[in-house]
Every structure is written in structure tokens, then in C-alpha cells.
Amino acid sequence: MAAVRNLPLFLTAMNSAWVVTVVAIIACGLVWRRTYKAAAGPLPPGPTPVPLLGNVRDLVAKELWLVATRWAKQFGDIVYVHVLGQGLVFLNSPEATMALLDKKGSIYGDKPALVMAGELCGCENMVAFTRYGETSKRQRKLLTRAFGIQAIPSYHPLIEAETHSFIRRLVAEPSKYMEHSRRYAGGLTLFVVYGYEATGSNDKFLNLGEECVDILSNRITSGGGIWPVDIFPILKHLPTWAPGSSFKIKAAAWKARMEDFIDQPYHFVKSSLKSGNYAPSFCSMLLEDERNWNPQFEWDLKHTANSMFSASMDTTITLFCQFLLAMVLHPEVLAKAQKEIDSVIGPERLPKLSDRASLPYVEAILNETYRWGVPVPLSLPHRLMEDDVYQGMFIPRGSLVFGNVWAIMRDETLFPNASSFLPERYMEQVEPALAQKRDPRRYVFGFGRRRCPGIHLVESSAWLLITTVLATLDISKAKDEFNKPIEPKVNFSNAVFRQPDRFDCDIRPRSERVLKLLTQAEGVRF
Ligand code: HEM
């Protein structure tokens, strides 16, 4: 997906003679490759490519998932396109995603090699960028120990505390809901990962973390993440005085900030551990046994820990904003959920994670928020490590494979009236096999060996977040000067996350009693 966004720009920026030469070389390679591979079966169907450039013109930066889903309707479960010979495969059904990304995870578990983001900007050891192999296996092992389902209850008290702080900030400045959700996601991750409690919105690590997420999302991957040096790695050897080498100077500056963010919070945990004054966290849990303190282990730990901040920010903000939007558009759902919460929890306390089993309608809202909101509609691409064949179709090694979560979550046969927000669909009793197939968690957290390791943390934190919002706040459309409701204008400009751009809404506390409960909860840390 990343490749796609930058290519037209990239091509116009290059010297045209050079482009023609390069394209010709790639085309020869392609022709050879296709002839050679014809025996293995046809490529999966897809829109007709133009000679040499492939499907460059078919790919768009904005809401590519809509285009990919139109292809799914036209060509079926699996669609193949290519850009300058780089294959992109879209898997559009539960069956295709499970058969390939899950069941054949050992050959579909790689990630694309990005010279700029990885090697030059220092992100190559972030979990989401790590190539499949020994490093990624060691990182995943650490993540499973600290974020496996059995570890999550130890984070419950801090999830509750961060949720209450978030609601207090929302009450104080409702129009800044996006900033608050960013602060919530960052604060929760810093605490869970490093045991570091951010102080206010001008906190040093929060600021550094946000600066790095900004560098990553808005600079390194702003045009889609593919730079000329990713296509022609030889460019990395350009001296910094040479024309066209400014990317190297930028990369060096960004890398320095990334390294600060890898090192500084990690040193904080180590010195807190030495002083004996620390809050339990992902790092402290793994560092408590000093026998582990060898260079390899510490290197893995600090890079793994650092990956969590950027991985959790946009996903968490997107999920919250989708939930908020659903409540603005569906007052009947909000009212029904509040009725359930009031009857189960009553007016004397705030919700707790232990209330979960007693609130089936709230559970249905969370399910429907994942499904309707689809936070990462094309998931993140996996790189196929060996040639493969699926239903007689040949998938070349090196293809970037996307699970088209959007197409699955909008499949009318699985979800009648799929574009409507209807939590009731998750209240119906259905056969266990169908319930499993319709469970949005199977898709929205990615696939196979790269599936999101934060899922169990999100399951608790997102549930408490939406339940506490429902219990304490009224949400509705904003009003104009004539007191007429303003329809929220919804636009999705982010290329990877389906994060609604800021929209108008009205958020206010449900009652004086709620404000009192929130004040009482203040200062109760654990
Ligand atoms: C609503 C919240 C979240 C959603 C929807 C989400 C979704 C995803 C998706 C779709 C992927 C790509 C999986 C793939 O390549 O197949 C991913 C990867 C990842 N997520 Fe999450 N995520 C969320 C929150 C979090 C949180 C809170 C953390 C950490 C505390 C986290 C840590 C990661 C990491 C480290 C990866 C990279 C895994 C790898 O490549 O091996 N995520 N997530």
C-alpha cells in the first residue's frame, strides 16, 4: 500500500531517461518471471495492468480499501495487481485470509524491507517492521510473556486509573476529544510498558513519544513509506554532499530522535529498578531477574518496548473516534446501553472490569465498533517468502499480501445491512462456527504470525473505556446557533487507519453524581 502512494510522485520527480531504462530492466525481469512461472498456474485475477508500469493508475492513496473491495466484487476472493513488477495481493474473504495468512503463517510472516524507514531511520527493529526470523521470534516471545492473556489482570488497576483521568479531561475540555484520546493512549502505553506515569500533557516522554510517532507517520511514511532508496537501495551510498541526497540528512536527524526514544524510557526503568522504587510494567517484569541482563536480551527488550508506543497510538485513537462517531449518529444505542449499565451497576460507583460479563449489550457495542469502524481496513502488508499456489493460482514470492478486512466486515452475507451500526446483530444466538466467523477480532487485529500482540490489552482497556464513557457521559450532535443539530462531516484522510478526521459533537457529564464519582476516583491510583 505504501509503495502505491508514492510511485506517481516518485516517477515524475525522476529523470525520464533513467525511468525508461529502469522500467525496461524491470519489464524484462517481469516477462522472464512470468514466462518462467507460467507452469505454476495463472496469477490471481485483477484489473488489467498497463505495460511496464502495471497498476500504478488503479491505486489511490485515499481509502484504498474501497477500491480493493470493488475489485473483490469483480474478481473474487483473491486479487493480484502489480506496480513495476512488485506484486500486491488482496485477500478478500475469511477463507482466503485464514488459508494463507494464518495457516501458512511460516511463509506469510515476513514484512517488506524498507531501506529508508528501516535501515536509515532506525525503525528496522520495531516489531511491526522486523523481518521474519530469529529477531522477530525473540521479540514476539517477550511480547507474549508480558501481554499474554494471563498477564493482563496485573494491568487492570492502571487501566482503570488512566480511564478515569481520560474521562475527567473529556469533561473539562470536550472539544479536545482527539488530543485527550492521544494522551490516554500514550499515557497508558508508557505506564504499561515502562511503569512511567506521565505528568500532564507536557510530559517529557509523552512529548518525545509523540514527536517520534509524528516523525514516523507524517514524515517517514507520509507519502506511503516508499522512498526512491527503497526501490534503488544503491542510493543509500550517495555521499551527503551529492545532489538528491537530502533524504540521508533527514534520515540521520530522525534516527537520532528515534534512538533517544528507544534509550531514554528504558534507562528510566533500569534506574527505577535499581532504586527499588518502580511500578510493575512490561520492562520491569522482564528485568526483575537480573540473570537476564545480557546485551542480547536488553537489546531485544528495549526495541520491543519502544515498538509498543507507535503501534498503540493511532489504533487506539481510531477505535475511540469510531465509537464516538457511532454514539453521535445512534442516540438509541447510547440510551439502550446506559439503561443496561444503570440497571447493573447503579448510580453509586463507576464501572469496573469485573462487570464485563453482566453487560451483554455493551459487549455487542464493542464488537460492532470493531466491525463497523474497521480501524486498519487493509491490515498491514505481509511479505510472502516463497512461491505459493492457492486454488490453482500462482502467488509469486516477494508479493505484499493484504488481508482486506474492510471487504470482510462489509460482506452482506455475513453481516446483513453491513454498513449500519447495529450492535443487536451480536445479540442473536447463532451456530458457534458462524459466531466465530463473524467475530471481528479474527480480522481487525491482523493475521498469523504478525497478529497484533496488544490484543488482550486492548480487549480490557477498550472495553473499560467505552463502558465508562457510556456510564458517565451524554454524547450527541453539536448544535448550531439556531439550536439545530449539526450533521457530523466524516472524512477519512489517513491512508492506513480509518480514523475519522475531527468532527463536531457534544459531550457532557450525565449528572452531578457522575462528576462526584470521577472526583472521588482521582488520586486513587493503586
Ligand atoms: C484498537 C487497537 C489496536 C488495533 C485495532 C490493532 C491492530 C493491529 C494490526 C492490524 C496489526 C498488524 C498485524 C499484521 O501485520 O497482521 C498490529 C500490529 C501490532 N500491534 Fe496492534 N492494534 C491495536 C493496539 C495495539 C496496542 C495497544 C499495542 C501495544 C501495546 C499494539 C502492538 C502491536 C505491535 C507491536 C504490532 C506489530 C506486530 C508484528 O508485526 O509482529 N497494538 N496491530
UniProtKB/TrEMBL annotation:
Record-linked Pfam families: p450 (PF00067)
InterPro entries assigned to the protein according to its UniProt record, in alphabetical order: Cyt_P450, Cyt_P450_CS, Cyt_P450_E_grp-I, Cyt_P450_sf, Cytochrome_P450_fung
Transmembrane segments: 7-32
Gene Ontology MF terms: heme binding; iron ion binding; monooxygenase activity; oxidoreductase activity, acting on paired donors, with incorporation or reduction of molecular oxygen
Keyword entries, A-Z: Heme, Iron, Membrane, Metal-binding, Monooxygenase, Oxidoreductase, Transmembrane, Transmembrane helix
SUPFAM superfamilies referenced in this protein's UniProt entry, alphabetically: Cytochrome P450
Pathway stated in the Swiss-Prot or TrEMBL entry: Secondary metabolite biosynthesis
Cofactors demanded by this protein: heme
Binding of heme, residues: C452
PANTHER family xrefs: P450, PUTATIVE (EUROFUNG)-RELATED (PTHR46300:SF7), P450, PUTATIVE (EUROFUNG)-RELATED-RELATED (PTHR46300)
Family statement drawn from the similarity comment of this UniProt entry: Belongs to the cytochrome P450 family.
Name used for this protein in its record: Cytochrome P450
Species this protein is from: Mycena belliarum
